[in-house]
């Protein structure tokens, strides 16, 4: 047997060394080294359980725990040499442990496989990241609430088809995003709940012949439950897919928001000013201030969708249980985590610092016959069926268009020409404030309703 073969932790049955390029091609250490902390934490729990069950000597457990802690310190101090020929984080750490403490180190892998080990490591890793992502979502929700509160009475045009539809409170628009991000938080929490199950103990695929105590390991690692089927435990990546699906929806929300911010900061709209610290200039056009941050977040949405597609495609025809294909789960997963965290963080700061141009928004809200529906509702309150009212107002809008007038500019005489149900009180019924504040039912844009919603979100109900 050649020396290179025996260097491998699995070298026993091999008589020729691994091809150098194959070694590089199959290695995951370059990206899975980020799991070092989880790998060590999982190994310590596993070793303690092996000791408690009398599967390995307690003296060995102490050596293993101590050795692993030293390795942890070394990695954190940047003094650990990761080796491609040791393939992945699991074997890098295990080989180093055995080199350090000998026999005892070689007992650590008793009753365990890299298949259940990696499933555990990813769950441990993602579990912490999900808590962080939830916290970033809270930060963003806070920024939105603070903009809503700062601009409580600012009226802007609400759109459908990107055509002026009805006046709304800017705060109401911000609260729409609050709802979206609250749902994203809920999806992350759901994902966390389903993911929070210990897979270790599944072994390679069928379980283990040793009298292990999985519930004890679960307790040590803070898992409320253990998985119930060994095959599923090592072949399941649903939790990563769920996270990436939830992340795709979250990025879709950020992307829609980006699109609005980009539009709102054009010279045509001028609804908002993004702080200089979130924009860049042009190398040729001196006047430019480009909304790079929202543009990039909109762009990065593509890679998060791509990551989800990548892993779905990896998984779609894999027979049970573990297949090496599944090593391809990590890069898209890590990239999704980084992208989502970065996007949320930068958005929370950018929104907090955004300046709202109340006067411009108000001017725009007054245009485009935005209170036409209010005239129709007015007629309905005076006894006209809604369909007839719609027709009457449609005619008055056409009349206005032909005269270059706006609805509030029509004289009493002109109004009465459209319907004798219209009285002088029409003028008060179609101001921007009246329009907004008339929408008082739950979910509407009325000031009192929006204030109540802000309070509701703040009190966490
Ligand atoms: N590096 C591997 C992965 O990320 C670990 C599990 C490998 N298991 C195996 N039997 N080769 O999927």
UniProtKB/TrEMBL annotation:
Keywords: Amino-acid biosynthesis, Arginine biosynthesis, Cytoplasm, Lyase
Gene3D superfamilies registered for this protein in UniProt: Fumarase/aspartase (C-terminal domain), Fumarase/aspartase (Central domain), Fumarase/aspartase (N-terminal domain)
Coiled-coil intervals, chain numbering: none
Membrane-spanning residues: none
Source species, domain of life: Bacteria
Annotated GO MF terms: argininosuccinate lyase activity
EC number assigned by the record: 4.3.2.1
Chain ranges of the Argininosuccinate lyase C-terminal domain: 369-437
Locations listed in the record: Cytoplasm
Key word DNA repair present: no
Pathway where this protein functions: Amino-acid biosynthesis; L-arginine biosynthesis; L-arginine from L-ornithine and carbamoyl phosphate: step 3/3
Annotated catalysed reactions: 2-(N(omega)-L-arginino)succinate = fumarate + L-arginine
PROSITE patterns listed in its UniProt record: FUMARATE_LYASES
Signal peptide start-end: none
Domain Fumarate lyase N-terminal, chain residue ranges per copy: 12-306
UniProt family annotation: Belongs to the lyase 1 family. Argininosuccinate lyase subfamily.
PANTHER family with a match to the protein in the record: ARGININOSUCCINATE LYASE
Protein name, as recorded: Argininosuccinate lyase
């Amino acid at each position: 047997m050649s020396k290179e073969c025996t260097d491998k932790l699995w070298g026993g049955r091999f008589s020729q060394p691994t091809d150098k390029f194959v070694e590089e091609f199959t290695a995951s250490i370059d990206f899975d080294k980020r799991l070092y902390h989880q790998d060590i934490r999982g190994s310590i729990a596993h070793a303690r359980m092996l000791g408690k069950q009398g599967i390995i000597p307690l003296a060995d457990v102490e050596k293993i725990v101590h050795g692993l802690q030293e390795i942890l310190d070394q990695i954190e101090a940047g003094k650990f040499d990761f080796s491609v020929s040791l393939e992945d984080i699991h074997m890098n750490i295990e080989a180093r442990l055995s080199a350090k403490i000998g026999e005892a180190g070689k007992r650590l892998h008793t009753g365990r496989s890299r298949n259940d080990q990696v499933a555990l490591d990813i769950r441990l890793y993602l579990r912490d990241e999900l808590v962080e992502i939830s916290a970033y979502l809270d930060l963003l929700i806070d920024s939105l609430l603070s903009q809503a509160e700062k601009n409580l009475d600012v009226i802007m045009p609400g759109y459908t088809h990107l055509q002026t539809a009805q006046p709304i409170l800017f705060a109401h628009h911000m609260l729409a995003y609050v709802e979206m991000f609250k749902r994203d938080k809920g999806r992350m929490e759901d994902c966390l709940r389903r993911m929070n199950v210990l897979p270790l103990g599944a072994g390679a695929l069928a379980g283990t012949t040793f009298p292990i105590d999985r519930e004890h390991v679960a307790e040590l690692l803070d898992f409320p439950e253990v998985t119930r089927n060994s095959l599923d435990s090592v072949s399941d990546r649903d939790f990563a897919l769920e996270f990436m699906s939830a992340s795709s929806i979250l990025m879709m929300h950020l992307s829609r928001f980006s699109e609005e911010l980009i539009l709102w900061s054009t010279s045509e709209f001028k609804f908002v000013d993004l702080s200089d610290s979130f924009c860049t200039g042009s190398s040729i056009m001196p006047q430019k201030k480009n909304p790079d941050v929202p543009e990039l977040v909109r762009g990065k949405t593509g890679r998060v969708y791509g990551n989800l597609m990548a892993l779905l495609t990896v998984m779609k025809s894999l027979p049970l249980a573990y297949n090496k294909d599944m090593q391809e789960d990590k890069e898209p997963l890590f990239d999704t985590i980084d992208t989502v965290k970065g996007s949320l963080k930068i958005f929370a700061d950018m929104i907090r610092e955004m300046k709202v141009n109340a006067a411009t928004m108000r001017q725009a809200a007054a245009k485009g016959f935005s209170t036409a529906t209010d005239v129709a509702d007015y007629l309905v309150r005076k006894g006209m069926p809604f369909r007839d009212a719609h027709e009457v107002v449609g005619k008055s809008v056409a009349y206005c268009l032909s005269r270059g007038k706006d609805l509030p500019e029509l004289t009493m005489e002109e109004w009465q020409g459209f319907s004798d149900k219209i009285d002088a009180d029409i003028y008060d019924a179609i101001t921007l404030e009246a329009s907004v504040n008339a929408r008082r039912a739950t979910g509407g844009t009325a000031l009192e309703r929006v204030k109540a919603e802000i309070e509701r979100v703040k009190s966490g109900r």
